[in-house]
Design goal:
heterodimer, A: mainly alpha, B: alpha/beta, four-stranded antiparallel β-sheet, disordered C terminus
Chain lengths: ~290, ~280
């Protein structure tokens, strides 16, 4: 017996008093706009205040014993150095070299981290096999990998990508495992009762249920990828924003070091924000729940 | 409508043990139930009496320690879309819109998108939720979520609907409406329904037959046949016969001797997730 053919919508099933009890989106008011501006204004003021404090400390040659600003370049010098770098054709080469390394290492880490994390989260025996070596490798800082990375990979480009991969892998892996393990078992039971097999449980339930956690992992992983950039680009090279920072240190060009640091900070912040934005576009159901 | 042929339930001398090692205990003891196709049976009992365990065994989520469970002569050994399961708290997929949640069962069967969406729309209309196709479950009220849950199970044309206190988390007003809705839907599709509840009024209002369960170990202590005429309306609950039966049920559920209740069990077994027989 086909269900739908025998069904007629029943009039009394509609119960409007229950349906109209839904919350409506609040109207945009002047008050809210004002609050939003205040919000951004405070953030901007905070950055400006930090810069002013820094400038003041340098001008005073502030020496507090434990910390001293006597040799620290002032914001003025840094802005000057940044301006020089921005007018140089090398900036684009530095940035593109670093972007390429970070994104390649990050993408490989994302692929490996999500795949391994999903499997480890669902298969207890695989967790027993894979987690001990992974836990052993996890605390090792990226900088300690440099000699081995050089020995393992004939191409210095790949050694650098490997360092970034190692940096980005663990947050992605651990967040994916966490997301998979946190799935409500009733959702899986329901899916099975509705006719899902093994594969569709993975694609229809486990992957989307773990998605918010995975996006968090990707966002943190993107941050740690940039975190490892200077370490990675110590290995070799001619270009790269991390290389630029490290090279400025070796030739004692202190203002340039800070310019390099700021560029890494801005790029890292931007790409993490990009991941979050992409995440919320891909998970419209999750907006407002976090 | 033709006479209903599918949905015959036969449970014979079913025993179910849950937990591991020393903590293993008998959740169901020697339960035998036969249900005719299209019958509406309520299982009434205090919490922890194993009524959800019974449902889990029928759904195919919990293996029998002894005895057998058959639906239409086929042994139950795994979950199947023929046996739809509705939980107390909805298990809608938060990442799917209402329409795709309802259409999920047909997607698993490989039905084309347009056709499954059409069937899902029909069912949403049946449960009174036309117009909410594109909402996400989180944006619906509790009663509406359970309506979607019921529609999602119905799309598979289940021979049996297994409902574990589906309205237990709703407020009294919504609960009454949902009970009427369920009876209305059931009168159109005539599927067999096994409905778990600890609410005496609910069981008396809905069922053809009530099975009263007692804990430690979970077993059936009494069977009550209800012959109230259908369709049933809200005035039924004040009729003398209804009140007599209610008094009788109260006495069964609250005997003189106090029994220590077991932990709350779900159709998926005990609190330990490892007990659940998942394939992956």
């Amino acid at each position: 017996m086909a269900l739908s053919s025998s069904l007629r919508p029943s009039g009394n099933a509609l119960q409007h008093d229950e349906l109209t009890a839904l919350p409506l989106p609040p109207p945009v008011s002047f008050d809210m706009l004002w609050r939003q501006w205040l919000h951004y204004g405070l953030k901007l003021t905070s950055i400006v205040l930090c810069l002013l404090l820094w400038q003041w400390a340098c001008r005073q040659h502030l020496n507090l014993g434990l910390i001293t600003f006597q040799n620290v370049p002032s914001p003025q010098e840094v802005i000057h150095a940044a301006w020089t770098l921005m007018q140089s054709p090398k900036l684009l080469l530095h940035l593109s070299a670093s972007l390429y390394r970070v994104f390649t290492g990050f993408c490989v880490a994302a692929l490996a981290g999500i795949t391994l994390g999903m499997l480890i989260g669902r298969l207890p025996w695989l967790a027993d096999v894979l987690l001990p070596p992974l836990e052993l490798l996890r605390p090792i800082p990226a900088v300690a990998w440099i000699p081995l990375a050089i020995l393992m990979f004939p191409s210095s480009e790949i050694s650098m990508i490997y360092i970034i991969f190692i940096g980005a892998l663990f947050p992605i892996l651990l967040n994916t495992i966490h997301g998979v393990e946190g799935i409500d078992v009733r959702l899986i039971a329901s899916a099975r009762s509705l006719g899902s097999g093994r594969r569709s449980i993975f694609t229809e339930v486990i992957l989307p249920a773990a998605a918010p956690s995975i996006v968090t992992g990707l966002s943190i992983g993107m941050g740690t990828a940039w975190f490892c950039l200077v370490t990675a680009e110590m290995i070799a090279g001619q270009f790269g924003i991390g290389y630029y920072t490290w090279a400025s240190y070796t030739i004692q060009n202190y203002a340039d070091i800070i310019v390099g640091m700021l560029f890494i900070g801005i790029m890292g912040m931007g790409s993490s924000a990009l991941i979050k934005k992409l995440g919320s576009l891909l998970m419209p159901w999750y907006r407002g729940q976090s | 409508m033709t006479t209903q042929q599918f949905g015959k339930i036969e449970i014979e001398r079913l025993h179910i043990q849950l937990g591991e090692g020393k903590r293993r205990f008998e959740a169901l003891h020697d339960v035998s139930i036969t249900m005719a196709p299209g019958e509406f049976v309520c299982v009434l009992g205090p919490s922890g009496c194993g009524k959800s365990t019974l449902l889990g065994a029928l759904a195919g989520h919990l293996p029998a320690s002894a005895g057998s469970v058959h639906v239409d002569g086929i042994a139950v050994d795994r979950p199947h879309p023929d046996r739809g399961l509705v939980f107390q708290h909805h298990t809608l997929f938060p990442w799917k819109r209402v329409l795709d949640n309802v259409a999920f069962g047909l997607k698993m069967k490989g039905v084309a998108r347009r056709e499954r969406h059409q069937r899902a729309r029909d069912l949403l209309q049946l449960v009174g939720l036309a117009g909410f196709e594109h909402s996400y479950p989180a944006h619906l009220s509790g009663g509406m979520q359970q309506r979607v849950e019921i529609a999602r199970v119905l799309i598979n044309d289940p021979r049996v609907m297994l409902m574990d206190e589906p309205f237990g988390a709703l407020d009294a007003q919504t609960r009454l409406k949902m009970q009427e809705l369920l009876l209305d839907v059931w009168s159109r599709i005539n599927t067999t329904i096994l409905f778990i509840t600890h609410d005496i009024d609910e069981a008396l209002f809905l069922a053809d037959r009530i099975l009263v369960m007692s804990p430690r170990p979970g077993r059936i202590i009494e069977e009550i046949k209800l012959d109230f005429a259908r369709p049933r309306g809200p005035d039924l609950v004040t009729s003398p016969r209804f009140i007599d039966l209610k008094r009788h049920c109260l006495a069964l559920l609250h005997p003189e001797t106090k029994v220590v209740p077991l932990q709350r069990l779900s159709p998926l077994g005990a609190a330990r997730l490892t007990d659940i027989q998942f394939a992956i």
